[in-house]
Structures are given as C-alpha cells and as structure tokens.
From TrEMBL:
Residues 1-12, 20-31 have a biased composition (Basic and acidic residues). Residues 50-441 form the Major facilitator superfamily (MFS) profile domain. This is MFS transporter. The lineage of its organism: Bacteria, Bacillati, Actinomycetota, Actinomycetes, Kitasatosporales. Residues 1-37, 233-254 are annotated as: Disordered. It comes from the Bacteria. Keywords: Membrane, Transmembrane, Transmembrane helix.
Length: 458
C-alpha cells in the first residue's frame, strides 16, 4: 500500500534460500573440501527475523497517519494558523508533491547506506516532523515540518516492499499482505482516533497531532538493531561447487517509456485516483463537519472510508490478476466514487455512512493500479520502468486537485462546486483506467521496430 513499487522488486531470489533446494546438494556441499564459510549465505537468527517482522509492521503503520491525522483536525489547524482555503488545499497536496520528489531518491540511498538504514532514518524524519509541525509559528514552517515527515514516508514507502522481497523471499505474499493491512490500519486509525485523542489530552489539537510522533519514534527504535543487517539478507551468491547459472541472452533495449500509450494511460489513471484519495483524506472530515456532523463522528466516517482498503487490498489484486482486461473493475470503482460524490452534494449528513463506504470503495483503485503496473509489463526491466514512470507522473498529476478543491471551497462558500468537480473527474479516471487495463504490455509497444520477432508477434 500506500502511496510506489520500486524496480528492485524484481531482485533475483537466492537459490540457496529456497525451500525446494535438494537435500543431496546440501549434503554434498557439507561433505566437500570447500570451506564451510562459502557454502551458503548466513541465515538470520530467529530473533532477528521476528524483529524484522515487527519493524516492517511498525513502519507500515506510520506511512499515512501524517496525512489522515491532519485531515481529522484540519479546521482547528486552519483556525490556529489563520489559513485560507487555498493554503489548506496546498497543505493537502504536499503528500503528492513529496512522494513524487523524494521517492525517486530512495533506491540510490538504499544502495549507498542500506535499505534498513534509510527506513530507520525515514521513521526518525517522520517523528521529528510530526512532533514539530503543530508548534511551528507560521504556515511556511508548518509546511516545512510536514514535508520533512512526508519525505520520510516517501523513501520508506518505496523501500518497504524491497525489504520484504529481499528478506522474506519465500514469504513475499504473506508479508506483503501483512504490510498492506498494517498500512491501511494506520491510515484508518489516525483518522478515527485523532479527535478522541485530542479530547483525552485536554482538547489541545497540537497535542493530538504531535502524539502520532511517538508511533514513528517507536518504529525508528525497532529498526536501529537492524542497521547492520546486510550480512543476514539472502543473496543471489552461488554456493561453492554449484554451477554458475548461464546468463540470459541480452534483449534489445526498449525505447523510451514515454512512447507507450499504455504507460501514459496508467499514469493518468494513477494520478486521478490519487487525487480522489488525497481529497478524501484531506477534506472528507471537513465536508461532514460543515454538514453538521460532529467532529468525532466525522473522524470515524473518514476512518470507515480508509478502512475499506484493509480487506479489499487482498481481494482486488487477486481478482484483477484473473482477468485479461481490468476495465470492468475500473468502471465499478469509478461508479462507486461518482455515486459517493453525488451523495455528498445532495444529502451529506443523512447518507453520511453510505457515502463514506462508497468513497472507500473508490479509493481501492490504488491497489488495482499497482496490480496493473505488474500486469502491463512482462519483464523485470519493464515493470521497473513502468512503475517509476506511472507513479512519479501520477503523483505530479494529482498535486493540483486538493488545491483546486480548497480554492473552489473558499470562493464558492460551500462544497457543491468542489464535489461536482470531483464527480466529473471520475469520468476520465474510468476512461484512462479502461485503456490501461487492456491486455497488452509495454514491451510490445516499445520494442524496436526492426525486431523481426516482435513484428511477427504483432
């Protein structure tokens, strides 16, 4: 979950770490004359593996509270800092900007310092940013502290799936499910608990926001013992006496990913669904409060919308993988969003629970988009390039949406015009999602024209 899948997802798994390695081969290795130290990679101790599982879960829990906790108290933050609606909209757009700007640096940082060190630093940045932002003296400083927290989220968001792939090569599915569930749980918990937590802390919204820094601090402390964990990670190093695997024949290079219509369709789909998600996280609680719903109930409604992703993050990718064309799923989720926004325009308070559920369903376009990234490319290189392009371009596309919603809210004096805009955006989201869901790959679109094999396939 959240908000990228890095190219290193396709890292080669260690043959020696697979459960199906023949026992006879291992016995011959032990009986041979080669030194034992080069027989196989060092396996991590049991306690370290358990600690890593806890660290993964804690990191995932911290990847969205910076966004949804702010959405639950956006009215108090606006009054405390004297923000206009446009500036508040800019604040809700900062996540997309930071994810696009800082996420691309994560693989390079991981190669230099190690993925565990970068994630630990990311958790520390989240803790510092969340602790500092309520106490800053100006809107600019608030934006800076929020950006610091989101920078930590961006690099951690990119590297967490890499760590799962490298450290749990035989349990990628279960660990990814655990990671996705923890991410959705952190998202919904921050939305539901921030307002009650503020009340329990004396009604000071600054304490309610800053309290989430403790969760990030706990995650950073758990990651500290794992900073020198490289020697325990499974590696694709062949054992002594094992034959060196033959290199695959070099494939002709693909043309620029920007020449792929599928890549552009997927990028626009990703950007529009991100717009919907960040408008929901940033403004939904405020929409309900302006309709007369209490602050506590509005936070719970936001949490209901967010928690829809917990079970559906398991179901939607499996359903999508069985379909040759994901267009019907795109349309179903888009219609849910269209109905949800229409309901908010016509009867925001009386149908609040239904609209929250429908918008939660619409936001499940995120796991669908990530699934399509893997299905629209057939090679590791293709998946990496498509993922980087679709997500970075998509996050850039999503930046204006929450700002524009804030501007329209301020100048129109209500939510009808902003919600009409969001309902209208469901139409191009469905169109580009259907185009991105067609059964084709970017390799087919980008293969050199002179390649006879590709020409024959076409």
């Amino acid at each position: 979950m959240s908000d990228g899948r890095p190219a290193s997802h396709e890292a080669i798994e260690n043959p020696a770490g697979r459960p199906d390695t023949p026992r006879g081969d291992r016995d011959r290795d032990r009986a041979g004359a080669a030194p034992a130290v080069s027989a196989a990679p060092v396996a991590p101790p049991a306690w370290r593996a358990q600690l890593l599982v806890a660290a993964v879960v804690l990191a995932a829990l911290n990847l969205r509270p910076a966004v949804t906790s702010l959405g639950a108290l956006l009215e108090e933050v606006r009054e405390g800092f004297g923000m206009s609606g446009a500036v508040a909209g800019l604040l809700t757009s900062v996540p997309s900007l930071c994810f696009a700007a800082f996420g691309v640096a994560a693989p390079r940082l991981a190669r230099r310092f190690g993925a565990a060190a970068v994630v630990c630093a990311g958790m520390a940045a989240i803790a510092v940013g969340l602790l500092a932002r309520p106490w800053t003296g100006s809107t600019a400083a608030l934006l800076g502290a929020t950006a610091l927290a989101l920078m930590g989220i961006a690099v951690s968001n990119i590297l967490m799936p890499v760590i799962v792939k490298e450290r749990f090569p035989d349990r990628v599915g279960p660990m990814t499910g655990l990671y996705s569930m923890a991410l959705a749980l952190g998202t919904s918990s921050a939305a539901a608990l921030t307002v009650p937590l503020t009340g329990a802390l004396g009604g000071d919204w600054r304490l309610g926001l800053a309290a989430w820094s403790l969760l990030a601090l706990a995650a950073a402390l758990v990651w500290l013992p794992l900073l020198r964990d490289r020697e325990h990670a499974p590696r694709s190093r062949p054992r002594t006496g094992a034959p060196t695997p033959a290199r695959a024949p070099a494939r002709p290079p693909m043309r620029s990913i920007t020449r792929s219509r599928t890549a552009w369709s997927l990028a626009v789909f990703f950007g529009l669904q991100s717009t919907c998600a960040y408008v929901t996280m940033g403004w939904l609680a405020q929409i309900f409060r302006d309709a007369g719903v209490s602050a506590g109930t509005a936070g719970v409604l936001l949490a209901v919308s967010m928690v829809m992703g917990v079970p559906l993050s398991f179901v939607i990718p499996r359903m999508a993988a069985r379909l040759p064309h994901q267009g019907p799923m795109v349309i179903a989720l888009g219609v849910s969003g269209l109905a949800g926004y229409t309901g908010l325009i016509l009867a925001p308070a009386s149908g609040a629970w239904l609209w929250a559920v429908l918008l939660g369903l619409a936001n499940c376009a995120f796991p669908l988009a990530l699934t399509m990234v893997g299905m629209r490319a057939r090679t590791g290189e293709g998946v990496g390039r498509l993922s980087a392009f679709a997500q970075s371009t998509g996050y850039l596309i999503s930046i204006p949406g929450p700002v524009l919603v804030g501007v329209l809210y301020q100048h129109s004096g209500g939510w009808s015009l902003p919600l009409t805009l969001m309902a209208a955006l469901m139409i191009p989201q469905m169109i580009f999602g259907v185009l991105a869901g067609r059964n084709r790959t970017v390799e087919e679109e980008l293969a050199p024209r002179q390649d006879p094999a590709t020409a024959a396939v076409r």
